[in-house]
Design brief:
single chain, alpha/beta, Rossmann fold, 2 domains, six-stranded parallel beta sheet, two-stranded antiparallel ribbon, 10 helices, about 45% helix
Amino acid sequence: MEHQIKMVVFDMAGTTVSENNLVYKTLNKAINEAGFNIGLTEVLALGAGKEKKQAIRAVLATQASVADEALIDQIYDNFFTQLTNAYAVEEILPQPHAAELFAALKKMDVLTILNTGYDRVTAQTIIDKLNWRTGIDFDALITASDVAQNRPYPDMIQLAMKQFNILNGNRVIKVGDSAIDIEEGKNAGCYYSIGITTGAQTVEQLQAAKPDAIIDDLMEILSLINRSK
């Protein structure tokens, strides 16, 4: 019998891209350069997986001082400049088995979609550095700047489904390394919303979002797809 799944939507940093939390370390630095004293653990807990201005808002909401949009814009601009420079010099690699999984999905006629809380320019920079090619290594990139509402809203997944004429979230798996990825998948009605332990958040933080599964390696997705028959 044919398997039910037609599309897997993957988060990028921490899920399919290995960058040692570079984005959140840079975000942490930019926030603290604006006069705050916040640890990386807190930034990972509050900001992981979110569109990056949304992540800054979430972190600053824990502070006694009221953060206005001008301050958030200032922090974001500093973050964006530093991240662009960091991505130019730091090593960025695929997560273990990402390429093998993408190839296996292609053979199974399952679409590989990348989605991310990054804007399109940043995401494309990462993809170019990895030498991943749209239509060859993966099927489409959907970014935070492509939709009106970001995670946990399902807009990015729904846009991917629309592009490939998939009418039911029950044909889709979402995989990500943060609780908000799991919430996004659930809100899109995905068959499975899966947490992976290779990125920003701990097993306990992932479990709080009640995922359908938590995996330690991307290749575990193949058995989950086969289970959907």
